[in-house]
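Example record

The entry below shows one chain as it appears in the dataset: sequence first, then structure tokens.
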Amino acid sequence: MAFHAHGTSDPAGTPTRILLIGIAGFVAFVVLLAVLEQVGVPHRVIGFLFVFFTLAVYAGIGILSRTTQADVYFVAGRRVPALFNGMATAANWLSAAPFLGLAGTLYVLGYDGLAFVIGWSGGFVLLGVLIVPYLRRFGAYTVPDFLAARFGGHAARFLGVVVLLSCSLAFLAAQLTATGLVASRFLGIGFETAVFIGLAGILLCAVLGGMRAVTWTQVAQYVVLITAYLTPVVILSVQRYGVPVPQLLYGQALQEIAGLEKQFAASGETLTPYLQPFTSYSPLEFFGLILCLTVGTASLPHLLMRYLTTPGVRETRRSVGWSLVFVVLLLFTAPAYAAFAKLEVYQAVIGTAVDSLPDWIYAYGNLGLVKICGADATAVEAIKAACASSGTTDGLLRLGDVSIDRDVIVIATPEIAGLPYVIAGLVAAGALAATLSSADGLLLAISGALSHDLYYKMARPRASASQRLFAARILLILVAIGAAWLAATKPADILSMTAWSFSLAAAGNFPALVLGIWWKRCTSAGAVAGIVAGFGLTLFYVLMTRYGDMEPWFGVPNISAALFGLPAGFVVTVAVSLMTRRPSRAVQRLLDAVRKPGAPLTEGGDPRRTAG
């Protein structure tokens, strides 16, 4: 089954061959590094090899998949099979937040962190039922394409671009932050420098080949990231319980954690039981976060764009099913990862003498990611001084003395557990795969919106394909540099930045998309007013609670900001629609056609090029 784009064969060969070659090469590379570790090659050299080999492979795919065709650049020629699109979508979505932030959040929050697992899983069901088959039937290149056709004029298209830019930039900054964390740890360089090194690999892939290059890169990246994520936790499961299925065995680890916490409490430690619900989030915050993440997943522009690359509507539905399978494999492993990491820290660090702390403490402490007694764990003397001033007189670490940044739990767990360093390098490669795959998709979504929707559809409708691609590439580079600068300032932790993007997408896109598809009475004025109200309120809440002095309303954190913007968007859209003239018969016929099976109705949202 060769991959073609309007007669142009994929230069890298068939998808199956690409996948098999990629898996074989990756396995051989990991085995080689394991051998090098055994013969005494320094850990820093192994870290360099992992990072640079990872970036070089992805950049190479971009060079091999370069294209000059607009439809290949924006939607991969619409020839991506459902299975491979499911893998690419999973890699696109399994960003820094699920890969790095989820297990770290479960490590810190315990039960309350399950809100992320539930919300993200449910979102794929929602988008598969309500949205993506109908966007694919319409034949759009981007979400603003559909909004413009459904609601007419440039207002809805422009607002769709604004929503896309806002939520995608927040998401992209989170990915580049994660890239900086991983690269700085394994290359021993500054965080800001590491961010821009990761950016170089992203740009080489996305600029040259567009969606086609990103698709096949993401297929390879999914293999890397899921292998990297499963390997350490499977090893720990075998070491502790003799069974390589951590998703079923981590309940025993939770029982051991509960037993250790009873011992800590008996010795006078103050702690919050790991398994106790609603200790960090109230029920309102917990279920509100689930709602925001579910709706946000179904509304993310860069995720919706991936489903526009399949040959037809039927393949789009199948692609959603495969995406859910591949995503859930990681989501259901994250609680096990967090539990095993927690148990390792409880057993290997708590109660340890300050003089005999493991080396990983100082490796991450020098990056400001591990604190002992409130101070960065940079050296034994610094730790002793901090602990003495905090009242630790016996030289043994208590539970409250140790603080590990939640964003490094995943990459630190192999070192915490004493696994070979090559496993830590493998996890780092997986983290880079997760962050780079998502960053590629985000950059394409942003540059596609700017070049296709603003430049081509609004500013220069007579622009040639080569002019559009040139504009897309220039804009992609500029946006990437701006996002890297934003990430270098570290505006928030990875999970918070990602959650903001979900809330912004939910409030800005979901009411207009769902009502635009399923309610014929929804008018252009109603959709525009609803986007302004819902998105505007959500953005205001995020900015004012993060950077202003505003207190959260009803205690709702800004990661759940759509809890206010989402209902506002629906209410305003419905109210204004009922007060304005019904949509034209042409629009209603379009909706009837979109809901019926068949070939895509347009190409790139342009009715002058019907596809069936």
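Notes for this example: The mean pLDDT is 83. The domain at 2-343+417-491 is CATH 1.20.1730.10 (Sodium/glucose cotransporter).
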